[in-house]
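Chapter review. Work through the record for WbqC family protein before attempting the end-of-chapter questions.
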Amino acid sequence: MTKIAIDLHYLPSLEFFAAIAEADELLVFSQDLYQRQSYLNRTRIRLANKVETLSVPIVGRRPKLPLDQVRIDYEQNWQAVHLRSIQSGYGKAPFFEFFFPYIQEILESEAESLWGLNLNLMTICLKLLRLPVKITAFSEGEIPLDLLDVRGLIVPGRPFSDRNFYQSIPYSQLFGLNFEPNLSILDLLFCTGPEAGKILRESIKKH
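Structure tokens for WbqC family protein:
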């Protein structure tokens, strides 16, 4: 049984899902500290003329807090911005109308913490990808020894090619002639639908 300890990213990248695609169980840690300059509150999607980074604003500039205590700043109208950007980028994608309502419902639900938002999004993404993976929230006690710990490894500052999780497998995207690898899982879901899980498994980097 493969157990993997992960960070809960916001609408994670293909690299993230390639890293966990063969896991039986995911361990998530609500008491890990929030890290700035991470994917905990940001994701990348493709628009007509560029790749756009969407960021979830949080309360406080540099909160050194456990993840489940990091509050989302709803005084900023970020949900409308994110939903509008996703619609602009993928509204004409083949499977947009099937999957978008699930994402919209979670973004509009106003989860209190970043942890709660990301956990809800992770749960629905695994369901849409048809990955039979169990998520276990781990708060205290001995961490199991028989697990692969990838926390803190998938970060914006280094290219995915430096790591051993993901290899780029092109699929049909909406814009441009050149394939843009390692975007948010939304790109793969909206563009390929039921083929997403298969493409994801093919994207696992061979060692």
